[in-house]
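Hi, here's the filled form for the chain we discussed.

Project: internal
Contact: R.S.
Residues: 122
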Amino acid sequence: MKEILLVGFGGFIGSIARYLVSKLNVSWQVLAIPMGTLTVNILGSLLIGIIVGLSAKSNLISNELRLLLMVGFCGGFTTFSSFTNENLLLMQNGQFLTVFLYTTLSITLGFLAVYIGYILGS
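And the returned structure, exactly as it came back:
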């Protein structure tokens, strides 16, 4: 039961943080790319990388804290379903170049962020 509460609390905080960052979609757009979603996915990837790196290096992060941060917070903060829905909307609007750029940036920068986070954490 403790693990469920940790994940739930982390998800609660992560979802609120995602909502606040996603407001960037309204105020900041580049080539119609939903910058709020891109930002949360990259930051979430960086955070997971840092947590994994710290966990591999030392005992600084307990299993409970990993559940709270990785499963809970990052799970609530990042949003693959929003990413795919936004791509569908862009495709329906005929913005195929934007779909390609957004998908490429999300995957490439997400992977780089996890790697950099891992390096920073270890």
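Let me know if anything looks off before we file it.
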